[in-house]
Amino acid sequence: MPITERFRPKILPSLLGTLLGGLLVLATSAQARELVDMKGRTVAVPDQVDKVLTTAPPTMPLVYVLDPARLTAMNFAVKAQDVPYFSPLVQDLPVIGRYLGDGPLPQREAVLAAGPELGIAWDNRFVDADGVEKTFVELGIPGLYVRVEHLADYPEALALVGRAIGREARAAELGAYIEEAIAEVTRAVADVPPGERPRVYFAEGPNGLISECAGAFHAEAIVLAGGENVLVCEQKALCGLESVTLDQVRALDPDLILIQSPKFYAAIQQDPAWADLQAVREGRFYQVPTTPFNWMGRPPSFMRALAIQWLANRFYPERFPWDREAETRTFYQLFLGVEPSDAQLAEVLAGS
């Protein structure tokens, strides 16, 4: 049975609870609770948290999917084509960008005016945790650290933030979906011998000559879905985005190419410089969906639970049969609270 079939009956109640919860004004208590975050810190959190500050792009979707009404700012702007997939509650919020503790907090006055009661920070080796913590102290709010670069961490991160903002049931429902998606894909591909796994090149940038190292969290979905990322290197910066040459790609000659840029997806079909690659000759190149959050992980989010199913089906259609349109629509209903029309769905999935 498709994963989303088991979650479909819960979609509308959970969405209704999320929307109503964001609009109701509840009585508050001065008493605080103690929560242990994903860095192992014990943090006193107010009993009632209505306003949350997220400090980095990966933490914003985490709070958004639980309750968009709790956000006080956005870490990136909503693109025009993505507006139909975002709640009106967030579309006029200030955009503060990425804050990793390295310097002053962007849009500080706007953040203060919003009155956040809790901060959610990214626990990552490239983040200056001391700097972020100092900012939380200056704002007079507690902060929780979450790890979200790996999809397997996401259910725990959802549960932690769900407890903090009173959305435990919603967090449990979404976490269960993610765990089941990982389990089903793993069962389907676990016994594929290494030599029979598709060798995949992840083409980023307008010319396809930026990529991610094997092991980098931005391309984790490839491995989770049973593929092999052909670019062997070590991620040296938070953003990844390793430069490669066309000669390197030719030497690697991948079985399949995933393409981030719509411009390059259009170009690869006509560029003779790429025409002799096996993946291009065989038509095994696919556009990565990015609406409203990138499926692969820029930023890393819950969308990867959908990406690993899409990729497993592309890599092993017989091992992992999957109705791309139906499952994508139901995922969007469950996680985003929207039901794409047929035309919207065709646009989201174009080239994939």
UniProtKB/TrEMBL annotation:
<dbReference type="InterPro" id="IPR050902">
    <property type="entry name" value="ABC_Transporter_SBP"/>
</dbReference>
<dbReference type="InterPro" id="IPR002491">
    <property type="entry name" value="ABC_transptr_periplasmic_BD"/>
</dbReference>
<protein>
    <submittedName>
        <fullName>ABC-type Fe3+-hydroxamate transport system, periplasmic component</fullName>
    </submittedName>
</protein>
<dbReference type="Pfam" id="PF01497">
    <property type="entry name" value="Peripla_BP_2"/>
</dbReference>
<feature type="domain" description="Fe/B12 periplasmic-binding">
    <location>
        <begin position="51"/>
        <end position="319"/>
    </location>
</feature>
